[in-house]
């Protein structure tokens, strides 16, 4: 199974996300991650879709995306060709015994404690999807109350000449 990242510029209007998600659903393609947001132009949004499959499936996804009327441009790249980031907010229950361990872990993983109460703290992590998974696994020994993740965002690496 190969993982592929699709950076899809689409017209920023209602129903476009539903059409793209429907394309994946109808053809039984899996979406590992999906993030959508407005670009520098308010009438254009960027969908970052991570999907996996065999070579044929990966090619079919790109072809089907290019057929959609609301799609302006499709770029595909592997993880080595782009910079990826994901945001995770994680709320953990802490006590006197593990508070120092959690704060040290945050320092090591470059995470931030963004909210805190007497028994809970909320941690923000913005990093690669792999490091997000590592952080999540390291916090499994603590009582995790809630997790929210954005999905992967990606842009191609900077080069002197881009099309």
Q: For the record, give the distance between the C-alpha atoms at the N and C termini, rounded to a whole number.
A: 29 Å
Strand-pairing-aware structural class: alpha+beta
Q: Give the C-alpha Rg.
A: 19 Å
Count of separate structural domains: 2
> What's the pLDDT, averaged over the residues?
93
Oligomer: single chain
Number of strands: 9
Q: Outline the biggest β-sheet.
A: 5 strands, antiparallel
CATH names the topology of the largest domain as Alpha-Beta Plaits
Query: What proportion strand?
Result: 35-45%
What is the name of the CATH architecture of the largest domain?
A: 2-Layer Sandwich
Which spans of ≥5 residues are poorly predicted at pLDDT below 50?
none
Which CATH top level class of the largest domain fits?
Alpha Beta
SS summary, helix count:
4
The gross shape turns out to be elongated
Order of helices and strands: EHEEHEEHEEHEE
Helix content: 25-40%
CATH superfamily of the largest domain: ACT domain
Task: Provide a concise account of the structure shown.
A hairpin with a 5-residue loop joins strand 2 and strand 3. With 163 residues, the chain is an alpha+beta fold.
């Amino acid at each position: 199974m190969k993982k592929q990242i699709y950076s899809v510029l689409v017209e920023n209007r209602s129903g476009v996300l539903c059409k793209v998600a429907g394309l994946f659903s109808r053809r039984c393609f899996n979406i590992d991650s999906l993030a959508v947001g407005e670009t520098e132009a308010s009438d254009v949004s960027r969908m970052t879709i991570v999907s996996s499959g065999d070579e044929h499936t990966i090619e079919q996804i790109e072809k089907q995306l290019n057929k959609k009327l609301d799609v302006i441009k499709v770029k595909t790249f592997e993880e080595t060709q782009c910079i990826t980031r994901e945001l995770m907010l994680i709320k953990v229950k802490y006590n006197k015994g593990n508070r120092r361990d959690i704060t040290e872990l945050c320092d090591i993983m470059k995470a931030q404690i963004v909210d805190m109460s007497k028994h809970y703290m909320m941690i923000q992590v913005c990093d690669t999807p792999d490091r997000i998974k590592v952080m999540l696994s390291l916090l499994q020994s603590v009582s995790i109350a809630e997790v929210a993740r954005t999905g992967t965002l990606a842009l191609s690496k900077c080069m002197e000449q881009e099309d």
